[in-house]
Structure formats: C-alpha cells, structure tokens
C-alpha cells in the first residue's frame, strides 16, 4: 500500500465495474445462493415460496428473476412470528453457522417501533476493515487524521462499529465523541483534541455551524476540519447543502452510505462510488413491480444487495435485500478518475409523496430550501395532515426565516421559494414562516415530516 496510490487496495479496486468483475461475481454468487438455501431458514423459505432451488439459477439474469427482494421491514413479521423472542428470530434470520460466530449486535436508530438488528460476526471484521479502508482512503484519511466520530454510539450501526473499523486504518486516530454528547461537548472535544476530520449526519454538521460561535467564540471554520464524511440521511449529496457546508467549514464534504459507497472530491457532486463489487452484488428493481431494471447509465430503481461471502456479511446478510432507498446510477467513468460506478440517493421508497400525481421526495424540498440560506436557516418541516403518500395540494411547509430577515421581505421571499419549488419539484407549497431556531435540531436523524394525522 503506497500513500500516493489512488486506492487502498490497488490490486482489486481498479477492477470495479468491469466485465471480469461481473464474471467473478457470478462465481461467488453461486456459493452465496447455496449458503442461503442450506443454512439460512429465512432465505430458504423465500426460495421455497417462489418454487426455486439453487439448481434452477444458471446466470445473473436467472437470479434477478428468481424471487422478490426482501425489505428490512419484513423482519418485523419474523419478530412477531417468534413472539418477539429475539434469539429465536435472529437464528431464523441469520442461521446457526453465523449466530455461532456472533461478535456483537448494533441496530438502526429505531425512531419508530422495534429497531432493525445489524449483527456482526467475527468473520465480518476482516471484510469491514477492508471496505472501510477503501472508504477512508478515498476520503483522504491518512496518518495524522484525527477523526471525530459523532454518530450515535448507543447501539447505533454507524457508531461503535465504525470506531472499530476506522481505527484499524493505520495512523488514523478515532475520537469516539458520539452524538449523545450534545453539541456543546462535541464542539469542545473536537477543539481540545484537534480533530481534523468529522463523520456524522449532515444535520448535526449543520447544527454545529450554528452553535460554534456561542460555544467556542469563533466560527466552525477555525476548528481546522479538513474532511466531513457525512451519512445516515441525505444532505451531502444535495448540492446546496454540500456547498454550504464546504464554505462554512472550509472542508471537503463527502457523502457515505446507503450501501458500500463514498463520493469523491470532484467539485461537482458525482454520486457515491460503489467500492465493493467483489463483496456484494448490486441490482436495481422497479419499486412498484419489483421487476429488474437494466443496469444502464441513468437507470433509477430500488437498490438491492446480495453479499457474495455471506459468512462474513457486513450490513447485508440476505439474498437481494433492499434498504428501501431509490438510487440513480452513473455507469460511465467519473471525471475524478477513480473506479466504481456511482449511485445517488433519489429518495426513500417510503418517503415518497404524491402531490397531484407528481412524485416528490423530501430531499428535493430540502435542496430548494437550503439554496435560500442565509435568508432562511435551512430548517424546515413538511406538515402532513393525511397519511402519505397522497397529499392534497398545497403541500404545507414550515420554514424558519434567517436571522437578518425583516418581516416585510417575507412575501417576496415566499414567492421566490414557491417559484423555485415549481421549477425543481413541480409543486407550489404553502409556507408558514417561523422565527429562527424554533424547530428542534436533532443530533441524530432529523425528521423532516411533521405528522398531523392519526
Ligand atoms: Zn468520482
């Protein structure tokens, strides 16, 4: 491994998104299918329900049509079937061989209902070190990097697990501050230990910008953070949010997650580079019909993942599992020169709103609102008075005005925002203005939707 290399793994990463890699994937997939059928009750039942055995699948095309993808939400039925007995549920979902190798468990943030478990096996450690090595390398982490890790540490999948993996990148020091510390302690700890990189949610990174002057006595830029690696919610992939964070921190802002990917430092956002063809099969399916979507430049669909070495799976442990994220892929070369096709998050399957037949994603609204900072703070909520996805127009938004905005300026500002929304998202929202800092700031995931229905 040389410090001037483009890649953490210079033998493997140049092969990403190439025909030889495709062939190697098919070889590995046959093992993965056999493992799932023989050793994972949950996957075997899925195949049996579809009337398929491993012997029926002769190619990647066969595989794409053999059975429907599964969503993590489907795990809930398993928990209910086993009467919330988590040990029995996990055994059914992951199989005896992997459960005997269980290392620890983390979960989704679980803001609603039972959190989805993410088990980690001893065999996962090497794979995780490899994949997070690739991510960290592309993010520019190198000896001397002091990474403030400010995701939730309590059970959260992006917390303690990432402490393990990034700290195995030689020379990188992880500062496990955690979102639970709260903004004041986060800012003070980063300053005290001279963090020069930060990984957290985009909403926390934005909140720190607002709080830094009061807590530290200077703007966040003076902390000297050079890289922001942001994930767990959209933000860093929204051009307006990214530009704003780059300007306020004086840092490179990268987007990570929703699969094994990280964006690059090319000035215009190019999506996240998929860095794991050798470990995971990536497919797109139509969100409505679940039919395969051909993998071509610009294609959009629900992303599905199949671990190619399921014994060592990281995040994904089942055949064709979807996180309910809609991706758009760019299959050609990236102007940054690094390997891997790219994917952008278009929205979440369950986030989509339908306003007069037009599909609208909260991330698109967030992009427009953030384009109006500093005349707005960037904080807003979508107020739903009926169960989504159907919304009777107009879509209702609560938006915070900027600190320096006079009331007399609001009607004109409102007209500008509505016009931009019409151009970008084909909606004409109704805006209710709020004073700055009215809406709750979350250190973990920000809920952009305010539910006013039962
Ligand atoms: Zn790139």
The parts where pLDDT drops under 50 for at least 5 residues are none
Number of helices: 13
Distance linking N and C termini: 56 Å
The CATH topology label of the largest domain is Rossmann fold
Shape: globular
Explain what this protein looks like in three dimensions:
The protein has 454 residues and is of the alpha/beta class. The protein folds into 3 domains: 13-125 and 273-348, 3-Layer(aba) Sandwich (Rossmann fold); 140-255, Rossmann fold (3-Layer(aba) Sandwich), CATH 3.40.50.280; 353-451, 2-Layer Sandwich (GMP Synthetase, Chain A, domain 3). Helices cover 31% and strands 22% of the residues. It has helices at 19-39, 41-49, 60-66, 75-81, 86-94, 96-99, 124-138, 160-166, 182-192, 202-216, 239-249, 362-370, 410-425; strands spanning 70-71, 102-107, 117-121, 146-149, 173-175, 197-200, 227-230, 252-255, 261-263, 272-274, 280-285, 300-307, 321-330, 342-348, 353-355, 358-360, 376-384, 390-391, 396-401, 430-434, 449-451. The strands form 5 sheets. Strands 1, 9, 10, 11, 12, 13 and 14 form a 7-stranded mixed β-sheet that branches. Helix 4 packs across helix 5 (86-94), helix 11 (239-249) packs across helix 12 and helix 12 (362-370) crosses helix 13 (410-425). The longest helix is centred in the first third of the chain and has 21 residues, at 19-39. The model has no long low-confidence stretch (mean pLDDT 92).
What are the defining features of this structure?
22% strand, GMP Synthetase, Chain A, domain 3, 454 residues, binds zinc ion, Rossmann fold, 3 domains, seven-stranded mixed sheet, globular, five-stranded parallel sheet
